[in-house]
């Protein structure tokens, strides 16, 4: 009896998840995941296989992708799946891609900051972006590899050198910050999480993550200044919370895969002409004096249609905005320097 109930619930959940991604009839779209055999890459591959907007799913990594591709390919959804391994197959993995998602790199371990990951992941990102510039220069690039505050500027510099840079097509995926802010706000404010919206601006590490709870909907009037301060801190430290809870055996992989799938779906909807698709993302920006900044972005057929402003901020958020700028500026400059020196 329990197994019957489980299968029924799973079937309902899968059909709901698939419907939530978007409509049944859609143009042909190829999505490539670089780092598809990793802790984020595997669940992300599963979620993108469930998305009816994806017609071709290309899975690439330095090892393990044939097995992941075989496994995911058995799922009875639209996307045709192929696995690619190693440098010599990277071009084929990328050819014709509309969206490229990059979760490649090493994960965080206890005691590590996102900046500690820099030297390893920066080199990986640079190599992958060089291949993107050659094989699918028009693709929307969704950067998950940390530190995003530096890897997005690295990607921009690589594309500029190749003559393929389009600021409308490069995104740092900060959706997990939004997902966490929504979850934590709903829990503390006792409002239904499905209806919650919280913009998160700035960057994607520590104090550079600035959730704008003053703009959260629906309003949770019971939350005081100390509650907002605690929610902000928890959102900023969400990655560390997971790293410590996993006690050295991983980082935020499942929630990150979910967030990556949500943002990729928004990009696909935008490409397909769905109106008013708005998500937060770390992009080239004039919202502040910094060259890259995360804020709400309207997505469309060319990627970024419009970078939206910050809107009204509380005094606490204004202080947070000024506090984050030096660290975010330094991370951006570190990425640009790495790209130009290596």
TrEMBL record:
Catalytic residues identified in the record: 204 (proton acceptor)
Keywords: NAD, Oxidoreductase, Tricarboxylic acid cycle
Entry superkingdom: Eukaryota
Gene3D superfamilies attached to this UniProt entry: Lactate dehydrogenase/glycoside hydrolase, family 4, C-terminal, NAD(P)-binding Rossmann-like Domain
Binding site for NAD(+): 35-41, 61, 121, 144-146, 256
InterPro entries cross-referenced by the UniProt entry: L-lactate/malate_DH, Lactate/malate_DH_C, Lactate/malate_DH_N, Lactate_DH/Glyco_Ohase_4_C, Malate_DH_AS, Malate_DH_type1, NAD(P)-bd_dom_sf
SUPFAM superfamilies the record matches: LDH C-terminal domain-like (SSF56327), NAD(P)-binding Rossmann-fold domains (SSF51735)
Swiss-Prot/TrEMBL catalytic activity: (S)-malate + NAD(+) = oxaloacetate + NADH + H(+)
MF term (GO), any: L-malate dehydrogenase (NAD+) activity
Domain Lactate/malate dehydrogenase C-terminal: 174-338
GO annotation, biological process: malate metabolic process; tricarboxylic acid cycle
GO cellular component labels: mitochondrion
Keyword Ribonucleoprotein: no
EC code(s) of this entry: 1.1.1.37
Class of the enzyme per the UniProt entry, highest EC level: oxidoreductase
Listed CDD domains: MDH_glyoxysomal_mitochondrial
Pfam family, one: Ldh_1_N
Domain Lactate/malate dehydrogenase N-terminal: residue ranges: 30-172
Record-listed substrate binding positions: 108, 114, 146, 180
Known partners and oligomeric status: Homodimer.
Family that this chain belongs to: Belongs to the LDH/MDH superfamily. MDH type 1 family.
NCBIfam families: MDH_euk_gproteo
UniProt protein name: Malate dehydrogenase
Species for this entry: Rhynchospora pubera
Lineage: Eukaryota, Viridiplantae, Streptophyta, Embryophyta, Tracheophyta
């Amino acid at each position: 009896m329990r197994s019957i109930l489980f299968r029924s619930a799973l079937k309902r959940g899968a059909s709901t998840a698939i419907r939530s991604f978007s409509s049944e009839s859609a143009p042909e779209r190829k999505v490539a995941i670089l780092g598809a055999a990793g802790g984020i890459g595997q669940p992300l591959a599963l979620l993108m296989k469930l998305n009816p907007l994806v017609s071709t799913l290309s899975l690439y990594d330095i090892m393990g992708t044939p097995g992941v591709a075989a496994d995911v390919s058995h799922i009875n959804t639209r996307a045709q799946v192929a696995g690619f391994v190693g440098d010599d197959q990277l071009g084929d993995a990328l050819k014709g891609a509309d969206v490229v998602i990059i979760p490649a790199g090493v994960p965080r371990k206890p005691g590590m900051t996102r900046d500690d990951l820099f030297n390893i992941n920066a080199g990986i990102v640079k190599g992958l972006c060089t291949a993107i510039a050659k094989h699918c220069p028009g693709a929307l690039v969704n950067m998950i590899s940390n530190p995003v505050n530096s890897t997005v500027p690295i990607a921009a510099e690589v594309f500029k050198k190749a003559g393929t840079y389009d600021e409308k097509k490069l995104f740092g995926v900060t959706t997990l910050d939004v997902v966490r802010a929504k979850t934590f706000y709903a829990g503390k404010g006792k409002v239904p999480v499905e209806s919650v919206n919280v913009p998160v601006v700035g960057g994607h590490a520590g104090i550079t993550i600035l959730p704008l709870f003053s703009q959260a909907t629906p309003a949770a009037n019971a939350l005081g200044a100390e509650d907002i301060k605690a929610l902000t801190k928890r959102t900023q430290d969400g990655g560390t919370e997971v790293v410590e809870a996993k006690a050295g055996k991983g980082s935020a992989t499942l929630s990150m895969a979910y967030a990556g799938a949500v943002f990729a779906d928004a990009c696909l909807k935008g490409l397909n002409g769905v109106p008013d698709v708005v998500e937060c993302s770390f992009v080239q920006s004039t919202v502040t004096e910094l060259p890259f900044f995360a804020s709400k972005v309207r997505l469309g057929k060319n990627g970024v249609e419009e970078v939206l402003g910050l809107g009204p901020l509380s005094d606490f958020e204004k202080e947070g905005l000024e506090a984050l700028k030096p660290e975010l500026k330094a991370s951006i400059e570190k990425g640009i320097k790495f790209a130009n020196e290596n």
